[in-house]
């Protein structure tokens, strides 16, 4: 390869998908497409990913899914996704507190780690060149801010290119391009509990995703000081904004997205059960600890059973229920 290799950073959302489609139509080279999977994208995104990977494969565009690999668990049960990471540490994503480290850790770093072992990139760097990395920032005002921030970040290994901005495409133009290619328009790419989500995005989430949001906010609540939840603080609805509380749990309750009894039981029981589980795992060698993902799987099945039970909050069976839930297993109920 005489030219520098070209990698597209694909977020499986509207902008980066449209970018790849148009570049392919124009015959521009893409040597690799990387999707960094934090394990907590929206369910709709995971439905779209294999569809578009098949579309790329048909056109000879290679793609890889990369993941951050946690290694140091100290006294915690092993976790594999950003949601499990948040629950383990009883915290919320950094965007809630004005940061952006979750993207660096779960998105950027895995892509760079994979590229570091990719032979075309190694040859390019050994020869003093830079890999071209395609970024899907569009021409909207919001992405313009992100673009201006990125301009100040020089990297001796990469030349960053922003095709959508070169073409003057906004998000609507990107959605139209995807539809014109005969593909379904994917949802906005983000974790299903991202603090930057809009109310209409929350309305589209599944019950499983909503339950984790309730659990995550309840788990973090004792440590929160200046924010109410994943949405930080309430929006009153001035200047055309959609009114909403600072807690997505309260929004879920207000809109009836989950039954109130289900929300109450998650908030009242699950955080303590998670603490009990973590304490039990801390006493074991790392290789014998049950992964956080197993506990979360049992949590979902336990909460789903609420819809077939009618126990009251002061039911005398509750103590034994808590014990069974903390042990996990397919028969655990909440």
Automatic annotation (TrEMBL):
Region labeled Disordered — which residues? 311-334
Q: Which InterPro entries would you find in this protein's record?
A: Rossmann-like_a/b/a_fold (IPR014729)
Q: What is this protein called?
A: Phosphoadenosine phosphosulphate reductase domain-containing protein
Q: State the species of origin.
A: Sphingobium yanoikuyae ATCC 51230
């Amino acid at each position: 390869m005489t030219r520098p290799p070209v990698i597209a950073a694909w977020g499986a959302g509207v902008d980066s998908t449209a970018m790849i489609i148009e570049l392919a139509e124009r015959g521009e080279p893409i040597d690799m497409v990387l999707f960094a999977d934090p394990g907590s994208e929206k369910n709709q995104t995971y439905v779209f990913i294999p569809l578009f990977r098949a579309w790329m494969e048909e056109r000879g565009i290679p793609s890889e899914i990369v993941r951050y690999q946690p290694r140091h668990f100290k006294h915690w049960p092993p976790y594999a996704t950003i949601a499990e990471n948040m629950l383990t540490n009883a915290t919320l994503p950094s965007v809630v507190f004005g940061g952006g480290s979750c993207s660096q850790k779960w998105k950027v770093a895995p892509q760079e780690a994979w590229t570091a072992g990719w032979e075309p990139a190694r040859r390019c760097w050994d020869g003093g060149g830079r890999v071209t990395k395609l970024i899907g920032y569009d021409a909207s005002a919001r992405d313009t801010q992100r673009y201006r921030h990125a301009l100040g970040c020089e990297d001796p290994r990469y030349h960053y290119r922003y095709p959508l901005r070169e073409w003057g495409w906004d998000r609507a133009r990107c959605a139209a391009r995807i539809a014109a290619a005969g593909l379904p328009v994917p949802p906005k790419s983000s974790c299903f509990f991202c603090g930057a989500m809009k109310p209409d995005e929350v309305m589209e989430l599944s019950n499983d995703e909503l339950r984790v949001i309730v659990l995550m906010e309840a788990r973090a609540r004792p440590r929160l000081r200046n924010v109410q939840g994943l949405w930080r603080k309430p929006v009153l609805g001035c200047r055309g904004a959609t009114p909403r509380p600072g807690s997505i749990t309260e929004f879920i309750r207000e809109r009836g997205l989950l039954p109130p009894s289900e929300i109450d039981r998650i908030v009242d029981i699950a955080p303590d059960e998670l603490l009990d589980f973590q304490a039990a795992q801390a006493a074991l060698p790392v290789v014998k600890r049950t992964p956080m993902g197993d506990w979360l799987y049992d949590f979902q099945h336990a909460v789903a059973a609420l819809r077939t039970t009618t126990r009251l909050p002061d039911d005398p069976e509750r103590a034994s229920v808590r014990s069974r839930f903390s042990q996990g297993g397919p028969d655990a109920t909440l």
